[in-house]
Specification:
By secondary structure, the chain is mainly α. It contains three helices and no strands.
């Protein structure tokens, strides 16, 4: 005849059941192809590729804009017909806040 364990013994054993290691699937432990060559690990610096972003003096924003603006006659709208007199398009009447 089967006897049920006493509640006190069951209460003492159940918390320890959570500490038992779980069975690990064999596919995670054994390599699928053990004879395949694997390159050895190599040293890589933690700071490799880090750029220095120190504070610099402010530069003239007008000069920076001129450096990145399209050059005259290449990709700009200055050479397009009808754009000479339009404000903001680099025409002769464009004050442009300067």
């Amino acid at each position: 005849m089967f006897k049920l364990p006493r509640p006190a013994a069951l209460a003492a054993v159940l918390p320890l059941a959570g500490c038992m290691p779980a069975a690990v699937p064999v596919g995670l432990v054994l390599p699928s192809e053990p004879h395949v060559p694997v390159p050895p690990p190599r040293y890589a610096k933690v700071t490799a590729g880090v750029q220095d972003f120190r504070v610099v003096e402010p530069k003239d924003w007008r000069e920076l804009n001129r450096q990145v603006a399209p050059k005259t006659g290449s990709d700009g709208m200055e050479g397009m017909p009808g754009m000479d007199g339009m404000p903001g398009m680099g025409g002769k009447r464009d004050s442009g806040g300067r």
